[in-house]
Amino acid sequence: NKNLDAIQKCLNDYLERKRLSFPRFFFLSNEELLEILSQTKDPTAVQPHMGKCFEGINSVRFNAENEIIEAMLSVEGEVVDYFKPVNVVAGDKKGAVEKWLCEVQDTMIDTLTRITGQCVKAYADSQRDQWVTEWPGQCVICVDNIYWTKEVTDAIESHTLPNYFE
Following DSSP, what letter does each residue of 110-150 receive, concatenated? Predict the structure, then answer.
């Protein structure tokens, strides 16, 4: 019984260290995290758990060799290609899923930041129905809110808010 308790404590400590190195692992149960960590030679083993780790990402697209993550995919089928693909086997990332998932997170943020910047510029130069379909949904919602806030602020400051709603 003491041995079993000691093993359980060591396992919990190990999982806690992994969660601290990649905090999104806190969204996973111990069983789910163990499933990922027990298959570190297979980077695609994270696929069933991407939705729990990253809201809005259902899966990622690997290259043919399953070594490079090229894009993120939503449940709805929207695909966003990464500006800088993530190599999951380069250097100390090989077998260290928490390290390359941190890079996936950073790449996701960088990619969406860049795309949102491009989307802001395109908003002013495009027809709305065309613009909405050309950009990732998250960026469309963000940019739409930026412009709505600007327009409402301008209407308040110019005392034309009632006209804005017409």
Answer: HHHHHHHHHHHHHHHHS-HHHHHHHS-HHHHHHHHHHHHHH
